[in-house]
From TrEMBL:
<dbReference type="GO" id="GO:0006275">
    <property type="term" value="P:regulation of DNA replication"/>
</dbReference>
<comment type="function">
    <text>Plays an essential role in the initiation and regulation of chromosomal replication. ATP-DnaA binds to the origin of replication (oriC) to initiate formation of the DNA replication initiation complex once per cell cycle. Binds the DnaA box (a 9 base pair repeat at the origin) and separates the double-stranded (ds)DNA. Forms a right-handed helical filament on oriC DNA; dsDNA binds to the exterior of the filament while single-stranded (ss)DNA is stabiized in the filament's interior.</text>
</comment>
<dbReference type="InterPro" id="IPR027417">
    <property type="entry name" value="P-loop_NTPase"/>
</dbReference>
<dbReference type="Pfam" id="PF11638">
    <property type="entry name" value="DnaA_N"/>
</dbReference>
<keyword id="KW-0067">ATP-binding</keyword>
<feature type="domain" description="Chromosomal replication initiator DnaA C-terminal">
    <location>
        <begin position="357"/>
        <end position="426"/>
    </location>
</feature>
<dbReference type="GO" id="GO:0005737">
    <property type="term" value="C:cytoplasm"/>
</dbReference>
<feature type="region of interest" description="Domain IV, binds dsDNA">
    <location>
        <begin position="329"/>
        <end position="450"/>
    </location>
</feature>
<keyword id="KW-0963">Cytoplasm</keyword>
<feature type="binding site">
    <location>
        <position position="149"/>
    </location>
    <ligand>
        <name>ATP</name>
    </ligand>
</feature>
<dbReference type="Pfam" id="PF00308">
    <property type="entry name" value="Bac_DnaA"/>
</dbReference>
<feature type="binding site">
    <location>
        <position position="150"/>
    </location>
    <ligand>
        <name>ATP</name>
    </ligand>
</feature>
<dbReference type="InterPro" id="IPR013317">
    <property type="entry name" value="DnaA_dom"/>
</dbReference>
<comment type="subunit">
    <text>Oligomerizes as a right-handed, spiral filament on DNA at oriC.</text>
</comment>
<dbReference type="GO" id="GO:0003688">
    <property type="term" value="F:DNA replication origin binding"/>
</dbReference>
<dbReference type="GO" id="GO:0008289">
    <property type="term" value="F:lipid binding"/>
</dbReference>
<dbReference type="InterPro" id="IPR038454">
    <property type="entry name" value="DnaA_N_sf"/>
</dbReference>
Length: 450
């Protein structure tokens, strides 16, 4: 594959054949590890120039040729240099493991977050908390509508804290996870396994930083709010940082117990609003850069068209760009306004009076479980996909009038019997499985927020 990569570098990134022959042609592969390609530079003095000019192009070309993203490191025969790089990578892997333990998405950092007038207060508060956890605003409460960057900001804080001090114990969870784990611990406790509750409390009460996303879904069940209340107190008195997000400010969450509400108001409450036009453009440009989309040469007017038409949800803004690129690739067409209009036609939908359709259900379930819609429609039968797929069937049955046969067709051609089986399976399971029933209630709220 190396020759293919060099060829790509030559055609796409070298200003001339001379430049190619001078810098790129002499390079060889030194070693390929799990996530890094080490490239050997024979002429030691040239390493700086190569590193500066070609590291990004190599990253792109390697990813395109191998279909996998690798880090690129240049090495010379100077062993100290190689060692340093290896140590650097070992350290990076270690931090990555910490990020994973804390449940973090590596893409959500302050670096990739665009600050605008809609979010600068929440951003500044987040940075302050990330710099001095437990010392400034505790709890930090971030609220705002769907797809406006709450989760992104929370992950950014957690990344920053771990990067400054890998010894800190940081945990990000959704309130759904908290609730479901509590339900399971209580259930096991009844089956005479007292350890279950101890393990649960140890998990949540020993953190230096606890982040709970979408707290509005800690609802209904008193026992969950009770347990969360004690978790909160336990952490707060010992000066541990708590960060909470919600779609509304505490005073507007009707189902929240008063004692939790007042506690949420102890620290700082920061809101995120919809982005204005400039911020939407900045986010599109940022995404273009992060996803290496410059090679598509998306015209300004196309970006402006997207920013003008997708206003109130950043996830949809990003989705529009993804859809446009996919369409351009698929149909091998130039990116222009008509193609963009076609790509956006399903996305630009008046949010008011949105009707519940099987497509909407599929989108929400797909996002909730982080399973692509294509997999829901596909044939794979592993449990990570079967459960979400059956939940789609169940929700189509209970939330829409769509005949089961049609549901099967929409789900990529499942027959009536398997749809019916899926519906029955979920219907029965939620009678006894409280965690699943909690999850389904949350998904229903996401589909139909009113
Ligand atoms: P929320 O949790 O508020 O529903 P998310 O944090 O999941 O929203 O954000 C939705 C998407 O939009 C994510 O992919 C996120 O990276 C992106 N996003 C949101 N705000 C910004 C921003 N200010 N800059 C860059 N990307 C953003
Ligand atoms: Mg979120």
């Amino acid at each position: 594959k190396w020759n293919e990569i060099l060829q790509k570098m030559k055609v796409e990134y070298c200003s001339s054949t001379t430049a190619y022959n001078a810098w790129i042609a002499p390079l060889t592969v030194y070693e390929v590890t799990d996530d890094t390609v080490f490239i050997f530079v024979a002429l030691k003095p040239s390493i700086e120039h190569i590193e500066e000019k070609y590291i990004l192009p190599f990253r792109v070309c390697v990813a395109e040729v191998t279909g996998k993203e690798y880090d690129i490191a240049f090495v010379t025969e100077d062993n100290a240099y190689i060692k340093e790089k290896k140590e650097f990578i070992a350290k990076k892997n270690q931090t990555n493991a910490l990020f994973e333990q804390a449940n973090l998405n590596p893409k959500y950092t302050f670096d990739t977050f665009v600050v605008g007038s809609n979010n600068n207060f929440a951003h500044a508060a987040s940075v302050a908390v990330a710099e001095s956890p437990g010392e400034v605003y505790n709890p930090l409460f971030i609220y705002g509508g769907v797809g406006l960057g709450k989760t992104h900001l929370m992950h950014s804080i957690a990344h920053h804290i771990l990067q400054n001090d890998p010894g800190k114990k940081v945990l990000y969870v959704t309130s759904e996870t908290f609730t479901n784990e509590l339900i399971d611990a209580l259930k096991q406790g009844k089956k005479s396994n007292e350890m279950a509750m101890t393990t649960f409390r140890e998990k949540y009460r020993t953190n230096d930083v606890l982040l709970i996303d979408d707290i509005q879904f800690i609802i209904g069940k008193e026992s969950t709010q009770e347990e969360f209340f004690h978790t909160f107190n336990h952490l707060h008195v010992s000066g541990k940082q708590i960060i909470i997000s919600s779609d509304k400010p505490p005073k507007d969450i009707e189902t929240l117990e008063a004692r939790l509400r007042t506690r949420f108001e102890w620290g700082l409450i920061a809101d995120i609003q919809s982005p204005n036009y400039e911020t939407r453009m900045a986010i599109l440009r940022k995404k273009e850069e992060l996803d290496n989309l410059q090679r598509y040469h998306i015209p300004d007017e196309v970006m402006q068209y997207i920013a003008n038409n997708v206003k109130s949800n950043i996830r949809e803004l990003e989705g529009s760009l993804n859809k446009l690129i996919a369409l351009a690739n698929l149909e091998n067409k130039e990116i222009d306004i008509p193609l963009t209009a076609e790509a956006l036609k399903d996305i630009i939908s008046p949010d008011e009076n949105r009707v519940v359709t099987p497509e909407l259900i599929m989108d929400v379930v797909s996002e909730h479980f982080n399973v692509p819609v294509t997999e829901l429609k596909g044939k794979k039968r592993n449990s990570e996909i079967v459960l979400p797929r059956q939940i789609v069937m169940y929700l189509c049955r209970t939330m829409t009038d769509t005949p089961l046969k049609t549901v099967g067709i929409i789900l990529g051609g499942k027959d009536h019997a398997s749809v019916s089986h899926g519906v029955n399976k979920i219907t029965n399971q939620i009678k006894t499985d409280e965690a699943l029933s909690n999850t389904i209630n949350i998904i229903k709220k996401k589909i139909n927020p009113i």
